[in-house]
Each structure stands twice: as structure tokens, then as C-alpha cells.
Specification:
With 113 residues, the chain is mainly α. 39% of the residues lie in helices and 6% in strands. The longest helix has 23 residues.
């Protein structure tokens, strides 16, 4: 017996979802880069996983992508010690819980959302 078997699958919805996700990632990246605050994410060995433009400038005028994989100690020395450890957020506990509860500022005042 000989023959050809063809299977067709409509992937329109999957493609739409992928395009929407790509658009949201682009928007998030744009917002992160345009904020004047230093925004970064590091791994457990203090290597950069993500950085915004402001943080990259602090570290010596590098592009954010150039920080990826580099440890803070090397970059901090290059930036003249400008980087200080302020707060570590555990991936297991939300930042609000580590600061004493949701809606509380570090000075103890209550946020009003």
C-alpha cells in the first residue's frame, strides 16, 4: 500500500499570541530603559541578568547588554565604588513582605494606592 498522508494545523492563534508577547516585551524593555532609576536583576553570584540604560551609565557608559554576565564587584571598582548594595529581594518572598508588609514604605509610613 502506498500513499501520502497530510496533516494541517491552523497556527493563527499561536502566531497572534507570539506577536502580542513580543510587543509586550518590547514595551516593557522600553519602559525599563527610559526610567531614570537604576534597574537591574542579578543572579545569586551577583552577576547581571538585566540592566537599564541608567544603570549601564553608572557602570561606565556601557550598553545594558554589555553588563550581562558580569559581576558587580568588577564593575563597581570601575565605576569608582558608586554602586552600593541597597536591598536584596529574595525570589521566594515578595519585596513588600521583606520590608515589613505590603503597602508599607521603608520609613514605616503606609503607602496609599
Amino acid at each position: 500500500m502506498t500513499g501520502i498522508r497530510t496533516v494541517l494545523q491552523d497556527i493563527t492563534e499561536r502566531k497572534r499570541a507570539e506577536e502580542a508577547l513580543a510587543g509586550e516585551r518590547t514595551l516593557l524593555r522600553t519602559v525599563i530603559d527610559l526610567l531614570p532609576d537604576y534597574i537591574y536583576v542579578k543572579d545569586t553570584q551577583s552577576r547581571f541578568l538585566l540592566s537599564n540604560e541608567a544603570c549601564a551609565r553608572l557602570m561606565g557608559e556601557m550598553a545594558p547588554t554589555e553588563l550581562i554576565g558580569k559581576p558587580t564587584r568588577i564593575l563597581s571598582a570601575r565605576a569608582g565604588g558608586a554602586v552600593q548594595r541597597r536591598r536584596t529581594v529574595s525570589p521566594r518572598r515578595p519585596a513588600a513582605a521583606q520590608q515589613g508588609g505590603a503597602g508599607n514604605r521603608p520609613d514605616g509610613a503606609r503607602n496609599s494606592y
